Amino acid sequence: MEFIKLDNAGDGEKYININWALMNQCNYECSYCHPDLNSGSIKALEYDVLVSFINRVFDYCESLGRKPYFELGGGEVTLLRWFKELVWDIHNRGGLVSIISNASKSLNWWRENVPALHGVYLSYHSEYVDDDKFVDVAKILADSPTTNLTVNVMMNPQRFEQCVSFANRLKNEVVCEISMQPLYHGFGHGGLTKRYEYTDIQDEIMKKFRGHSVNKNIPKPRGLVSVEMPNGEFIERSSFDLLVEQEINFVGWSCNAGIENIVITFKGDIYRAWCMQDGPIGTVFDKDFDFPIEPTLCKTKICQCGADICSTKIKNPISRHIENNIIMKTG
Ligand code: SF4
Ligand code: SF4
After folding, report:
1. Per the confidence metrics, is the pTM higher than 0.70?
2. Is pLDDT above 90 for 205?
3. Which ligand has the shortest distance to the CA of 258?
């Protein structure tokens, strides 16, 4: 990894990111997904607990002059009884909501709720998906002027050809961002360990594939980073680029996870990031939860999630970029 600093780019500075695993129930049972992520073994939080924590987040963001950006995932979050109310409530209060979904809800559900959704990450799961329906959902989302659509084709090595063929079809039929996501062992079970085996040719296909570049002129709170090279040059990348190119080992770096973002588990435990390396920093039930104000030192080999990757990081924690123990933004 050549770069020495990574800043959350786009509109990142205007938002606090809350990445929330709302429930572990799913209508699929993908072979590469741990039951912890799809079995429904954990009861989803009561709606009033959820709303009370969301109120606290809005108050905190207001005190900083920022807005909250919620990224909601599961399981399959659209199965939650009160999910529509939740996303409309956040939207109507000026927050942003993005969701991760397998696209299985009806076309009418998507038409009705797309105006409240700032972003949708549709995941293509080759063992269960209905390709035609998936393309129709993607078209509804791509046509919305206020919704970012990213499709992640989960590159199941057992069905590699099917995944490549679908990614190419989608690229032909829908103008949206598409990435081929390599699979990792440990998906949905306390941290990724190592990648599934891919041949060199498959690896090359995944690295080279790009969807469309779409700019809808709406905020970009997460997903873009600006990396600083040793010669002082800055290059804008996406978190997906870094993931696919395996530039995600920040061990020894100082990291603003927890300051710029938090993550929340199915049970309501709060961590700085999905690496969970420093243990929980609170729960959504705590009346006195405070966001961290100091960076952490990375000890985790794989920075697994786009939201975590985007938090500001610096290679040499003793440097001109540190002031009062905080990593300063470049520029
Ligand atoms: S990978 Fe996603 S869609 Fe597949 S079973 Fe797990 S949560 Fe459900
Ligand atoms: S693994 Fe955790 S501590 Fe390390 S860079 Fe990623 S978010 Fe930061």
Report:
1. yes
2. yes
3. 2
